[in-house]
């Protein structure tokens, strides 16, 4: 399988990455190299094998993600968290106008 | 002074032969004189304030083994006062509102932070050339890469610019640079060390761990770093262990599994020789070699380069120029702001992995790529469990070759990925792994570059791994070798 230039543009669009035509060309060749490598997987018969998403689940099949009680544990740090934001006002994050 | 172990320094500190402040000043001076580009952010005032606190604790006999010991953090761990960039333009000026759990745990012991260490951008890379702030140089040969992604950590320890360092390992990022720089590093079992405040790359693979000169120093650092953390949903609830406890256990009867797939085509002769010599040394220590098979080893590369980018594309979607980090200067609407911000903020390799990840998660490709990768991931984990019925520890090379020159593999992602063959499966299975120095190779340039021996243990066998590494280091002196200039001077 190999990708086309329009595939690269489409994926970049989905990933919210601006990509120039020149850059897309170079990326296309590299992605096709990567997918040629990744394509080796298709030869493996995995019928009946469950996907493994959490590595320790291979050891402890009963393992599940922990849930905590629904209580407030953290203090309000909004001001501290917003200090590193590019633009804020009155405790809100500023972005370009979305609705006229 | 700067070549001493944690235990030696700790006894000098407690015996008032040197103060934490003097020790910090000594290392800060070494960092100032270094041209390796290992450190990204140094703030002498902050470091000396921590050293003064350590001196107070020492004064009042409230010291731990790490009180006053200079360490440094890979710039993937967020710190409240030092900038936290993940080696990316995206976070060039980012100062975190909180400390990572690993960082605060080390502060609690009284360890003194010398600063933040260079790394591949968002930990994506095996050469440290993907850092926005420029590559780190290998202290053994400044033309060579230090490995990655924890390249700054490995180079700083090797050059004796710090006593120990933190690193993170998603596909080999502690073990591989440790090998290429001739130091010791351990990647613990997935879930052992908290990921809270560790800037995420691939969350089902990422694991933090210590890097230092010796296994004993790593054990002391791991004692401070490991432990259950409520703030990390994948942190494993287990009794705390003292990783220094069993270091001296004899190795007689130890069964070492040697995977035949790790010694096939692609392994350089110089690396193989050093690794085989290390295995013979273990036989002298009473261990027995057992040939084992890890049949899916070569598949770990495609599996990793599907799963890790998939998780990365999701994790890195948070960088949108709204809540933190870089925002493009000029843009039209909101979409345009996202796209320009991300195109400017991320480097080439990071963008490539986001694109690969986005693609394999797309409707229509998800089953063929992502789910297939997760199924093979289970096969890889099962191979290890079968192997561990025949042996107690698995040993082999960390890397197929010694360090290559800066620039040699740039622009060829696949060539870089293939070099990760021996380290990726450990992360896919979630097992603990180590690299310890075991010799030197000539490479293609006929220069001396370090070789690492890889130790892989079963789940939660860190103490055993550290014991096995420590006994080797008592019988050999590879871990004491330092690059020229690292042992001399102040």
List keywords for this structure.
heterodimer; A: 100 residues; mainly alpha; two-stranded antiparallel sheet; 2 strands; 33% helix; 4% strand; B: 490 residues; alpha/beta; Amidase signature (AS) enzymes; eleven-stranded mixed sheet; 15 helices
Unreliable stretches of chain A:
none
Report how far the terminal alpha carbons of chain A are from each other: 44 Å
Strand content of chain B: 5-15%
Structural class determined from secondary elements of chain A? mainly alpha
Number of strands of chain A: 2
Distance between the termini of chain B: 8 Å
Largest sheet of chain B, if any? 11 strands, mixed
Which strand order do you get reading across the main beta sheet of chain A?
Answer: 1-2
The average pLDDT score of chain A comes to 91
Beta-strand share of residues of chain A: under 5%
Gyration radius of chain A, in Å: 23 Å
Biggest protein-protein interface? A-B, 51 and 76 residues
Number of helices of chain A: 3
Which structural class fits the helix and strand makeup of chain B? alpha/beta
What is the number of domains of chain B?
A: 1
Strand adjacency order, main sheet of chain B: 1-3-2-4-6-5-10-11-9-7-8
